[in-house]
Write a structure and sequence with these properties.
Blueprint: H1 14-27, H2 40-47, H3 51-63, E1 67-70, E2 74-77, H4 97-113, H5 118-135, E3 139-143, H6 148-162, E4 166-170, H7 174-178, E5 185-189, H8 193-200, E6 206-210, H9 216-224, E7 230-234, H10 238-252, E8 257-261, H11 266-275, E9 278-282, H12 286-295, E10 305-309, H13 315-325
Parallel strand pairs: 3-4, 3-5, 5-6, 7-8, 7-9, 9-10
Antiparallel strand pairs: 1-2
Helix pairs in contact: 1-3, 1-10, 2-3
Length: 328
């Protein structure tokens, strides 16, 4: 689990540091749907923050749709969109046929015990299968236009994993796109799920949230870097770069210099190449970063260490999406 750390003397407000760290924990599923957040008292003891500050952060998380408050119980991570966990996948491989039959039989027996007739069960099964077939025909990735790079990352990885075309749509244009279709699946990062759900719900279009990679290996490395090292972060997503900057500041304070850039910003990228000891890049940006380093070898004494992050989307999330779309 992520360990929340607050730099009290930072220019970044403590509430902003904590908000970004909790939101990251939710987005990468370290805090999964239904997870109970620490009490304000427990988190105050851990972080040194006043309970009022923590309550303010929790209220903001609730207003943004990440958590929900249950009276007398606590604060829980909200189930978002069409959560696909736990649904049955029907294999067609011959040696698995017997197990598949047992799964179908068990589900049918359960429905009959609940009072459904055989005809009703049949219609429900066929309706769900038809729904999934129609929805898998068109997959839309929706993100806000100010972080369209996050969508480009998702499309890049989804097309590699799903082997189907995936369409990128700016959130501001999603209503117009959905007006032209009656069968689609919209996917987005948990960072944006509440806003996307609000647009898609009136259209009766399902929305599936994608968990982002938890970056645990990369964070462990950065915890061990010597003080005064410079770390470059290059990503198509400006939002991920900003969040990483805040989270790393929470971990190391001013011990590390953090520089960020998008691959299309040649000036900032060149500055990172010349200054950083370590550069962390997403998979889609890595070739550009590597080329920039190679082009600058004559101008730098020691080339930076390059780290390619293989995923933006969590592997489990990809597998759940495949299952929801009926892709194996």
């Amino acid at each position: 689990m992520i360990q929340f750390r607050i730099q009290p003397d930072s220019e970044i407000p403590a509430s902003n540091q904590l908000f970004n760290q909790i939101r990251f924990a939710i987005a990468c599923r370290q805090y999964p749907p239904g997870y109970k957040l620490p009490s304000t008292r427990a988190l105050a003891m851990h972080t040194g923050l006043h309970r009022n500050t923590i309550s303010k952060v929790y209220r903001q998380l609730e207003e943004d749709g990440f958590v929900e408050s249950l009276a007398g119980s606590g604060i829980y991570v909200r189930t978002q969109g069409h959560e696909g966990g736990g649904r049955v996948q029907y294999p067609i491989v011959k040696k698995q046929a017997e197990d598949a039959y047992k799964l179908v039989q068990k589900a049918l027996d359960e429905m009959l015990s609940q009072g459904y007739s055989l005809n009703q069960a049949r219609e429900l099964f066929l309706g769900e299968i038809d729904w999934r077939l129609r929805c898998s025909a068109q997959v839309l990735v929706a993100v806000p236009s100010h972080d369209i790079g996050a969508g480009e990352l998702m499309v890049y990885e989804l097309e590699l994993s799903l082997n189907i075309p995936v369409q990128l749509v700016a959130m501001e244009e999603l209503t117009a796109v959905l007006d032209k279709t009656n069968s689609a699946t919209v996917v987005t990062s948990r960072y944006f799920i509440s806003d996307v759900e609000a647009i898609a719900a009136p259209k009766a279009v399902r929305v599936i949230p994608l968990d982002i990679y938890d970056y645990s290996k990369e964070l462990d490395l950065l915890k061990t870097l010597p003080k005064q090292n410079c770390v470059g972060i290059v990503s198509l997503s400006s939002g991920i770069a900003r969040a990483a900057e805040v989270i790393l500041h929470g971990l190391r304070g001013d011990e590390l210099l953090i520089m960020t850039a998008q691959p299309k910003d040649a000036y900032k990228l060149q500055a990172i190449v010349k200054r950083a000891e370590v550069i962390i890049s997403d998979q889609a940006s890595f070739a550009i970063v590597h080329a920039a380093v190679q082009a600058s070898l004559e101008d730098i004494i020691r080339p930076p260490k390059l780290i390619k992050v293989e995923n933006y989307i969590g592997a489990q999330s990809i597998n759940l999406l495949k299952r929801e779309l009926g892709l194996g």
